[in-house]
Design brief:
The protein is mainly alpha-helical. 58% of the residues lie in helices and 4% in strands. The chain is built from 14 helices and three strands. It has a three-stranded antiparallel β-sheet.
Length: 328
Amino acid sequence: MAIVAALVAPTANPLRLAGGQRYRSNWRVASASSSAAASRVDLKALGSAIDKNDSEEAKQALDQLKELGWAKRWSSQPYMSRRTTSLRELTTLGIKNAENLAIPSVRNDAAFLVTVVGTTSFLAVIAGQLPGDWGFFVPYLIGSISLVVLGVGSISPGLLQVAIGSFSSVFPDYQERIAKHEAAHFLSSLCELVSYLTGLPILGYSLDIGKEHVNLVDKQIEKLIYSGKLDQKELDRLAVITMAGLAAEGLEYDKVVGQSADLFSLQRFLNRTKPPLTKDQQQNLTRWAVLIAASLLKNNKAAHDALVSAMSQKATVLGCIEAIENAS
């Protein structure tokens, strides 16, 4: 696949980024200044549009709020033309191990496999102490669990993703990674902060294990994607949004572990672009998208941090937008 190696080679239905359902809870911005700012405007129209999953109505509501001086970050990032981008630029910006960004991480898979094999082996040894035939059959039965897991992983690895995802929660940084990753998508979709900053509404998200995603809803873009007629400008915007999660992890951690689904999403967009991009153009687009997304995240760090906190507390989409706009 062209883009999986895009960052490694030397330089020469709503749309869903990675996975399930929406969260709803009563999160409120605690800051007095934030509450005061929100009280000056009526957010009912925006809340209603989000509840109805209506992207056009949500855009209109945000445009009106922007005119009133509240939604200042909404669609605040002007379009930037794609240009040739090198790994050195990504490193200079602060991306850690830029040359390995597109290499899928096996950390969670390896930890799950080692745990399964180690646990079943230990239990098999203990079971071998049982009297009579039990001491013969039970160890074989327990030992077969590892063989079944290995077999399923070889034939249909997707069936193990829920189990691996659940197991991954044992890592101290797992939930924080998810929140930063999905918040970056959200932020990039809502402003052109990487979709909010680009003027593409987010109408849903989830941090549930195995269902991590944000929902990007835009009827016009949906039609272009399904018809296979994405133009270069829309492709650039979608690429920046898609790579935002990878950029967020790359700025924070030495090893990115949540990039696979994003790279597949980007490849899907590339496959539906007219005219099609060459392999070298796809490589450059991937690097450029990471560079722009990382720049937006660094320049809007306060908004990103506020959004990560809101999403971690399972805020509503409206609550997330308030967090973005009320961040200092």
